[in-house]
């Protein structure tokens, strides 16, 4: 059977369920129970029913309910469906923010971390390796909370859980046997007699528009964000201390970087202090002596510069040597077998998990947030290592249920008027509760950690690892929260990334992210570093239409950016994530595309590579070197409507050509008026064309009046012979400001 909506409206579920009855030591295990739509399964202890609900012409909701006739505790639940997975690529969404997400197929596998490595590194604690089986078998793929299947025509079948409040949901594909399973992590969940759980609720949709599917899916989740809805205000840039100073951040460093940003007129929105201001993890109100003026004074300095002030916390983490751990051991989650505190991770020498249900621990967090947000005056909190709240099931609740409660608690404690940046969190629990959320691993000042990649650590710190998740989770942004793809690292100091890799990180994060940080000290920048960083202002607000991996590790991004009048400019970004050069072909011409203007990593610099073509014919061939990215502005076809208008042909002063232009129009006297966005303060170069004078002749006008000043017209070759076009040239007026 196919993955169509009709299949799931009529097909049977084959259910495996295991549960424990009160007073009986051995669990009851049922395998392959056939549950037909509208016909309940009843064995005198549990009743299982399945049905579907219409949602729209492009979607349904698949429902599976469990009723307990006696008190019981669930151990395992999985519903299986026979489907045809041939030539389908499955989105494998990792467990939490840092866990890799990417599309996979029948030739891929997801191994677990080896037990010896897990014992030595404790990296397993950051993921789901200890409670969800990773088969490591070829053709067996799983995805957390949601997935999609992409066929060869780029039609998507989307599956998204809307019952994560009862437990983590996994979608499992066995390509070898054409089986799709819905697995629910129910371990530890108790059900009272005659209680019915709406255990499985899955939105299933079908479309070739991924964004439209996420629009429908997002509507199932209550919007509790400070910034509600899909708003351009959510798109901001900022500075964070972590990726340059790490735990060595100090008041002196903070003030130095604030002053440098002001001096060089970088209009960032958020300035965030990361880990290092506190004396110990968990002792959030005990301030390190590196901040002698106190955090209220530091926040005032930041806000006085015109920035929002952000502060990092890990509310559910408690360091081994913290005062909280020493004085309040009852606030820590206890292992029910060993009666010792549960270890949540190896960071900072090891940390425990705070018990969010303990009344005094909860009041401590309430005090922390009140002091940070009201007394000190911070505008945003970055809340990290949130997965620690749900390390084990307890109190009759599953892990996922506890995680859901933890994120509900966070929003309630922070309040409705302050911004939250979530991190290290299973994403579904954060949807529409936090304003921003990390959607990839930490980036690094190097491309890849090959050792941890070979050890199957999906949460590894790695620029390549982070970017793959950024490219795979793009559709969450704005709909569920603003995506935080992590920082861009543009500096020369303490950075092993090549120029092309820095540019790729910069471009993809800005296009696909809503919150884009840097940690560079701009006071240390040379001229080229300044030019590239300045080319990211203003923060581009991209409406992403699609992201497609058109061959292994080669990605094509289609997006639009609205001009001041609301009219969209069309763009295509192509990224080579492979380790070798790749031959690529531009998309064909269409109603919006007659030519392409191309960017590259050197064009924003003092010495651009003049061998690189600026203009291309559609369908033309070009080369991307390893880890290189190019963004192409679509130049519309000549038409009668263009007469009396001015067309943007390209620019070198923004990573998304034209995003720095506020106004481009013709004055009544026929001259051009151009106005730039105030956020863009760098040297500018913009190419324009009057009317339909796209293709040059040597009789083309030699100058054009812009803002009352005559500017030169240049003749540029158009590269490529796509669609059978011959060698031609284009005449563009060049505006420099």
Features:
737 residues; alpha+beta; 17% helix; globular
* CATH fold label of the largest domain: TIM Barrel
Structural class: alpha+beta
| Cα Rg | 27 Å
Q: Could you estimate the helical fraction of the residues in percent? A: 10-25%
Pfam family, one: Melibiase
Protein name: alpha-galactosidase
Keywords: Glycosidase, Hydrolase
EC number: 3.2.1.22
Write structural notes for this entry.
The chain has 737 residues and is of the alpha+beta class. It folds into 3 domains: 5-93 and 145-218, no CATH class; 232-439, TIM Barrel (Alpha-Beta Barrel), CATH 3.20.20.70; 545-736, no CATH class. Helices cover 17% and strands 32% of the residues. It has 14 helices and 41 strands. The strands form 7 sheets. Strands 27, 28, 29, 31, 32, 34, 35, 38, 39, 40 and 41 form an 11-stranded mixed sheet that branches. The chain has an 8-stranded antiparallel sheet with strand order 3-4-5-15-11-10-7-8. The protein has an 8-stranded parallel sheet with strand order 25-24-23-22-18-17-16-26. The radius of gyration is 27 Å and the shape is globular.
